[in-house]
Amino acid sequence: MSTYTTEIASDKILSDNPIHQRLLKAYYEAEPYIEGNVLEPGCGEGRGINLLAGKAESYTALDKIDEVIDALKLQFPTVNFSQMNFPPFKGLSDNTFDVVISFQVIEHIQDDKKFLEEIYRVLKPGGKAIITTPNIKMTLTRNPWHIREYTNAELKQLAGTIFQHVEMKGIAGNGTVMNYYEENKMSVAKFTRFDIFNLQYRLPASLLKIPYDILNRVNRKMLQNNNTSLVTDISHQDYFLNEESETNLDLFCIMTK
C-alpha cells in the first residue's frame, strides 16, 4: 500500500519490526477477552484481525482510510469493515458489542472524551473495552501525528469520568527490547541536538509531519544497519503485559461498562 508512514508501522519493512511487534503484542494480550460481538475502531492495516476475528461471533472493524478498508475486505471476507471518521460511530446502535478494542488510536482523536463516550455507548452492560496508547513518559520526541499523549494518571482520570471500572496496565519490554529502546534514544538525540530553539514543540504539527517521517525512517534504517539482529530478531514474545508503571512503553487500559 502507499499509505505507510512511520506512524503506520509495517510488518513488511524490516526496520519497523520492533514497533510492529510491540503493537502486535496488544492483540495477543487482548485475546483472552475476545468473545461475542467485537468492535475495533481504528483497525489500520488489520495487524491483529487474523488472530482475533475467529474467536468472536462477529468482528466489526473501522478505519478512515478507504484503500486500507478495501484491501482488508478482500483479505478477511467474514469481517464487517466500514470506512468511517469517528467519533461518533455512525450507524452503530447502543449496547451492541461485548468487547471493544482500539490500539494506538486515541492519541489521534481530537475529542478523546467523545471517543470514549462512544465506546461506552456501543458496549453492552458489563462489556469491556481495551485501549492502548503511547506512554508519554517514554516518548523520545514529539510525534506530530499525535494530538496528545498521556500519563497513566491522565488516561485513568479521563476514562474514569465515563466508565465504572478502569484498570491500568502497560506493554513493557525485556532486556532485548530495552537495548533497542536505549539505542533508539541515543540515535534520536543525534538529531534533536540540532533543535536548539525547541522547534519540535513550538511549530504547528502540520509543518513537522513530513520532516518527522523522513527523519524517523532514516533513524530506523540506521538502527537496522548498526545492529541488524537486534532490530529483526525482536518478536512479540519480547514484550509483556506489565502492571501500571511509569516505564511501560504503552499504556494498556481495561474499562468495564
Overview of this protein structure:
It is a single chain. This protein has 257 residues and is of the alpha/beta class. It has one domain: Rossmann fold. Helices cover 38% and strands 21% of the residues. The chain contains nine helices and eight strands. The protein has an eight-stranded mixed beta sheet. Helix 6 crosses helix 8.
Q: How are the strands of the largest sheet arranged?
A: 3-2-1-4-5-8-6-7
Q: What is the CATH C level class, in words?
A: Alpha Beta
CATH superfamily: Vaccinia Virus protein VP39
Which fold name is given in CATH as the topology?
Rossmann fold
Cα-to-Cα separation, first versus last residue: 37 Å
Average pLDDT level: 92
Query: Would you identify the CATH architecture?
Result: 3-Layer(aba) Sandwich
Share of β-strand residues:
15-25%
* Class from secondary-structure proportions: alpha/beta
Helix content: 25-40%
Written as H for each helix and E for each strand, in order along the chain, the element string is HEHEHEEHEHEHHHHEE
Number of helices: 9
Low-confidence stretches: none
Number of strands: 8
**What's the alpha carbon Rg, rounded to whole Å?**
18 Å
Largest sheet geometry: 8 strands, mixed
Summed up, the domain count is: 1
Q: State the shape.
A: globular
